[in-house]
Design a protein that fits this description.
Distance between the termini: 71 Å
Bound molecules: adenosine-5'-diphosphate, 1,6-di-O-phosphono-beta-D-fructofuranose, magnesium ion
Oligomer: single chain
CATH topology of the largest domain: Rossmann fold
Order of helices and strands: EEEEEEHEHEHHEHEHEHEHEHHEHEEHH
Radius of gyration: 25 Å
Largest sheet: 10 strands, mixed
Strand content: 15-25%
CATH architecture of the largest domain: 3-Layer(aba) Sandwich
Amino acid sequence: MMASSQPEATNVAAGGHQSLNDGGNSLSFSSVTPQKLPHLTDYLVHLQPRSNPLDQNPFFHPTDGFYLTSSDIILRQVVYDLSATFLSPSSHRAYHRAGPRNQIFFDPSTTKVAIVTCGGLCPGMNTVIRELVIGLWELYGVRQIYGIKAGYRGFYSTDPVELNPKIVHNWHRKGGTVLETSRGGFDLTKIVDAIQHRGFNQVYIIGGDGTMRGAVKIFEEICRRKLYVGVAGIPKTVDNDVGIIDRSFGFQTAVEMAQEAIHAAHVEAESAVNGIGLVKLMGRSTGHIALHATLSSRDVDCCLIPEMEFYLEGKGGLFEFLEKKLRENGHAVLVVAEGSGQDMIPRSDNQREEKDESGNPVFLDVGPWLKSELNKWWARDHPDELFTVKYIDPTYMIRAVPANATDNLYCTLLAHSAIHGVMAGYTGFVSGPINGNYAYIPLEEVAQAKNEVNTMDHKWAWVRSVTNQPDFVRT
Ligand SMILES: Nc1ncnc2c1ncn2[C@@H]1O[C@H](COP(=O)(O)OP(=O)(O)O)[C@@H](O)[C@H]1O
Ligand SMILES: O=P(O)(O)OC[C@H]1O[C@](O)(COP(=O)(O)O)[C@@H](O)[C@@H]1O
Ligand SMILES: [Mg+2]
């Protein structure tokens, strides 16, 4: 089935001009514009499509509606205030739905694939790799699939390793990434040279915000050189700091693992006289893990996140609140995200400048600092009373584990979504869930978007109502 060489034209008005609100401020299908997705035919204009091999797959029986078209979209925003007098243009933003297309732009028998993992670990990385390999092999019949070792630097510093379903069959049970990962080592020219010289046609890049910024540059250079190479990003971040998508894979697993640390802190605190259990959780610049772990646990009395400043002494401060809790309950549990309180920790000029290999700021350790401040405070104000701080730092334990069942399923859908998109000729995109449905989002948009905790929204208000902690606004 050889048809037009261009992907189907966008027609979001196909369903007619239905509107959400017939008042003065209507949102109609005609005003919904899906974000434009780059396609290989944007610069390889003579590239011919071919029918999807899923047509011949004995395990699939494509029916009407099995294949998605570019008129299948997902709205970014699903919550509206119908009394609003103005709908911003961004409220009409939409993305193409992820899934198989009836035409593909690769010959599986000659397609050569590279898969790379970059940045910090996250539960589920191995599942994504496994499902990319299995999906490419089983769904589309691709046989040349390679893993790039140790992150971006692996493109130009080591030989790729061959992957097949037999090799990866049990990888979803392993934490970490069998391909290995690293920070730094991003050399655009060397990376794209390696992609070109090794003859890769599809590159799947699994990584976080830094990785996605690198992926944008790789994609742009590939376009500039007009290479027959599709690029897909698969967002990975245990911190859940990548924007637009509902949440990142491995995040739920990490929150679940954090429960054990919080539980232990609670037991230790309860079993001491004036006991404080202090748990530090990952979260470089966003406090999602701390927030979700707090809400799920219900044993936490105070949750400190980077998005919210706090102070120790005086009215409305942390010490005053903890003292009240100790007097009421005899113990208190405190969860602190690693990026919190950085401005309060004394540091040298050298420490102020410190960055990791990827350019991320290196934080001072808020846990031991807070423990020491708590001990100083109590010894000063209540020298005759017993007091214990038990500090638990489960840092790597929450991310160096295999994904739980929900995250494993999520990783599988992400990987398959990415494969279907690249096979269909889309490039420079990220696959990810938006409002529960899988979408293709332009890489550039994902690289720029940051998911921070909004301390003005209902979720943070819920934390406050669970903990009754102060809002740390000085009066
Ligand atoms: N702005 C950038 N441009 C190009 N590459 C980047 C950029 N930021 C980070 N990288 C590269 O992306 C990789 C992962 O970045 P890092 O910040 O360590 O992790 P993550 O992707 O998980 O946020 C590293 O190899 C790093 O060099
Ligand atoms: O010690 P490492 O491996 O650099 O990782 C520490 C950092 O990695 C993270 O887990 C996540 O970082 P990325 O998602 O940016 O890779 C942060 O929470 C933490 O600060
Ligand atoms: Mg990052």
